[in-house]
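User: Could you go from structure to sequence for me? I need the amino acid at each position, not a summary. Structure tokens:
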């Protein structure tokens, strides 16, 4: 089973402004144009039956849209998919999740089946290092393609994919939102220079936001959690604001970089030392091969070398 980890994204997307930034910045513009984001309303999630037992993060929001002069409610089903591998069963999972959500609406008397079901917009947000290759509609998994008379009877459900790693740095900068800054920080990972640049950019975005204090608090909590997940090993207990504490954060990030560089040098010295010891053993073995009648097994035991290496040295010496 793939390992999931706490990204802090579930908290981020429990705030309407980040849901709005996700729709406006990373889905087709014609979708965002229909939505009245002032009507965003968060619903309790976790409608999943034991068919899928793995831990995952999902959120459901409703929003009013205006389509051909008629107002209607649409549900945004947001699945946060942060596994270490691409899940090729995603179309099956999404179909199951949406069916469970509809079942929840009916059981809680939110609506009656005779009145119909509301539209759902399923979104998969993925941040793995490998690019997403799973099918996006369950119909595409039906192979071989069924004959024409059977095609109308096959399941159809398509989800919209947002693959963070597929966006270039320039594309993220062009979106100029707090969420694009989050994606940029995620993408930088442990590249210290890119990480510091991404942090600087998100601080400037926060400073321009009309709700600066609220966004600052949300993103400060997220970044502290993110750095903890990267095993940065820096104490950020005193960091309560990215804007006010940007210098302290920069100093901590620089200390982290210096520490890793120092540890890298130490590891290099240790590797050089070990290689020196091994070469000394090989030289001693060469002398024993040239000056004695000892067999390879005995030389290997004396010099604590693998027998295969001694045999290789003997072959080289004889040539």
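Assistant: Here is the amino acid at each position, in order:
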């Amino acid at each position: 089973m793939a390992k999931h980890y706490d990204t802090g994204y579930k908290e981020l997307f429990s705030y309407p402004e980040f849901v709005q930034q996700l729709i406006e910045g990373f889905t087709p513009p014609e979708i965002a144009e229909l939505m009245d984001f002032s009507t965003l309303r968060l619903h309790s999630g976790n409608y999943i039956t034991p068919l899928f037992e793995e831990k995952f993060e999902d959120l459901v929001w409703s929003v009013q849209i205006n389509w051909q002069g008629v107002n209607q409610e649409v549900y945004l089903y947001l699945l946060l998919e942060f596994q270490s591998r691409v899940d090729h069963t995603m179309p099956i999972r999404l179909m199951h999740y949406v069916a469970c959500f509809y079942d929840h609406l009916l059981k809680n008397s939110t609506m009656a089946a005779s009145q119909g079901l509301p539209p759902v917009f399923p979104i998969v947000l993925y941040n793995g290092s490998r690019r997403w290759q799973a099918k996006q509609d369950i119909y595409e998994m039906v192979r071989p393609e069924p004959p024409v008379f059977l095609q109308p009877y096959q399941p159809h459900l398509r989800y919209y994919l947002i693959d963070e790693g597929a966006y270039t740095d320039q594309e993220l900068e062009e979106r100029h939102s707090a969420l694009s800054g989050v994606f940029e920080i995620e993408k930088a990972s442990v590249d210290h220079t890119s990480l510091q640049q991404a942090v600087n950019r998100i601080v400037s975005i926060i400073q321009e936001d009309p709700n600066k204090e609220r966004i600052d608090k949300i993103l400060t909590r997220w970044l502290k959690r993110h750095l903890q997940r990267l095993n940065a090993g820096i104490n950020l207990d005193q960091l309560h604001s990215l804007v006010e504490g940007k210098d302290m954060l920069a100093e901590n990030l620089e200390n982290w970089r210096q520490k890793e560089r120092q540890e890298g040098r130490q590891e290099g010295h240790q590797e050089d030392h070990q290689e020196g010891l091994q070469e000394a053993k090989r030289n001693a073995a060469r002398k024993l091969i040239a000056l004695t009648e000892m067999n390879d097994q005995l030389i290997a035991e004396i010099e604590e070398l693998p027998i295969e290496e001694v045999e290789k040295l003997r072959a080289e010496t004889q040539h």
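One structural detail worth keeping in mind: The chain is about 50% helix and 15% strand.
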